[in-house]
Write a structure and sequence with these properties.
Blueprint: E1 4-6, E2 12-13, H1 14-25, H2 27-34, H3 40-60, H4 65-73, H5 79-84, H6 92-109
Length: about 110
């Protein structure tokens, strides 16, 4: 049995967590591609992927949805940046709990 990386309410093993992380990191690339793709079926497929990420972030924590979405879709964005520059209205514990919930929810959708 593989080790659970997120325990408690949101149990994910190493590979479930990594899949969700890398899926979310494709958000910006997919959103850029969706604007230039002519093929309607491919654009629709990309829109569904984007929706999975957005819905997971919204469901994880509606109050900090925008900050959470930015934090999970860009590996350069840190908690400190979100709090000091972007005005994240919560502490590290809540942000990290929301991130854990986001990855759990996203792993269920993909």
């Amino acid at each position: 049995m593989s080790r659970k990386y997120y325990s408690g309410r949101y149990k994910l093993d190493k590979y479930e967590l990594l899949s969700a992380i890398y899926y979310a990191l494709n958000y910006k690339r997919w959103s850029e591609e969706s604007g230039v793709i002519d093929d309607e079926m491919q654009r629709e497929r990309i829109q569904k992927r984007l929706s999975k990420i957005e819905e997971s972030a919204r469901e994880a924590d509606r109050e900090i949805y925008n900050w959470l979405l930015e934090g999970v879709t860009d590996e350069q964005v840190t908690f400190e940046y979100l709090q000091t520059v972007k005005g994240l209205p919560c502490g590290r514990n809540r942000y990290n709990a929301s991130k854990r919930r986001f990855y759990f929810l996203l792993s269920q959708r993909i």
